[in-house]
Amino acid sequence: MAEQLTNAYLETSPSVPSWLNKGDNAWQMTASTLVALQSMPGLVILYGSIVKKKWAVNSAFMALYAFAAVLICWVLLCYRMAFGDKLLPFWGKGAPALGQKYLLQQAAVPESTHYYKNGSIETHMTKPLYPMASLVYFQFTFAAITMILLAGSVLGRMNIKAWMAFVPLWLIFSYTVGAFSLWGGGFLYHWGVIDYSGGYVIHVSSGIAGLTAAYWVGPRVKSDRERFPPNNVLLMLAGAGLLWMGWSGFNGGAPYAANIDASIAVLNTNICAATSLLVWTTLDVIFFGKPSVIGAIQGMMTGLVCITPGAGVVQSWAAIVMGILSGSIPWFTMMILHKKSTLLQKVDDTLGVFHTHAVAGLLGGLLTGLFAEPVLCELLLPVKGSRGAFYGGSGGVQLLKQIGGALFVIGWNLVSTTIILLGIGLFIPLRMPDHQLIIGDDAVHGEEAYALWGDGEKYDPTKHAGSLYSEQTRPNQHVNGAIGVTVQL
């Protein structure tokens, strides 16, 4: 045993190849764990507590299922569709990432070599100093959280069987396209679009796909749209806290190394989130007379989303500016514009994922096109001389690239999500039947979140005061959020 332990720490041995950097590997696995904790249990807890009591189990289960299903699809096919050899300019060749020979070799992103126009190499292939297994798992955690964020738009009415079919199909035909195009060496990567850690790949895609899915699945029952209070505010804060703290791994792991760029990204992430939360809360107090816990969580989230596309390439003063804008512009679209927009009123986006992720992610991508700092860009980006418009030179071109990248991600997700859902709808109803929508978890899963009526006793409206139906239709005089968006102030 002692000899084996010693061999593990030799400069070179079968378990310590010459290319391995233990610090980088340790940080990448830590970052992966932090991102995984954002989903499981972070968003599982957040979703299970932010929804109405009758949907707590179903909402948590949708997130739990997605986390497990994405992992299996990821290693069977999807990792190499997103980070493997090129099949098309926007898609990699799918193949398993399961064999020992593949997983123990040095990590590499095959299509990441960047060339000058004359054919000479501008930036060499991305080859992190740890095994492929670490990279496969790290990228899985990003795919999983994207899927779970999308679920926030259809909570409280999507048929669970339709969701089970939707998860692998959307992962294959939508997520892998964005990931390869922007990160895996696809055409947007080589064009020079900056998406440091998923403002476009994760947040714009989940927000647009979520809104599209909400449209095709259809709305919740009328009583749920009119009154949808969280069932546990303190537990909701616990889930939000896991989401915030886990974001250090989200943005800190993006450079694929424990380097100085990871440090600036972690600091910027927390600065922007804090600023955005404070701005959102301030606006709530100014316009509604009191601070809202849900509002603070929404502000925290928009700050985290907004900084993501530029966390490692903007200065910390820019992170504050981005936080101010992410705490105010999505607030305006959610609290003001949503109420006035006929289109947004028609689409029942349960948790307002369009506002917190699509709007905030697009805002972050465009602000990155303004504030990307040349020295920080040089540390990470494949296209030399990249800079934001604020720094002159070619910065104006960078902003145009950011717009172009956003348009591709938006268009692809609109079309792919629509086709997938219409295809599923031919075989499985996308929306639950009305009798399940009225009852909730007990009808869908045969389980309830809380045993509030005695030791193991089932809830019976004929025996217990305050029937389920009267609870659903009781008016709330303190709702300031837009219909279809869970915002109770």
From TrEMBL:
GO terms for cellular component: plasma membrane. Pfam families: Ammonium_transp. It is a multi-pass membrane protein. The chain crosses the membrane at residues 26-48, 60-82, 135-155, 167-188, 200-218, 230-250, 262-281, 293-311, 317-337, 358-383, 403-428. Keywords: Ammonia transport, Membrane, Transmembrane, Transmembrane helix, Transport. One of its GO terms (molecular function) is ammonium channel activity. Residues 26-450 form the Ammonium transporter AmtB-like domain. InterPro entries: Ammonium/urea_transptr, Ammonium_transpt, Ammonium_transpt_CS, NH4_transpt_AmtB-like_dom, RhesusRHD. Belongs to the ammonia transporter channel (TC 1.A.11.2) family. NCBIfam families: amt (TIGR00836). This is Ammonium transporter. The lineage of its organism: Eukaryota, Viridiplantae, Streptophyta, Embryophyta, Tracheophyta.
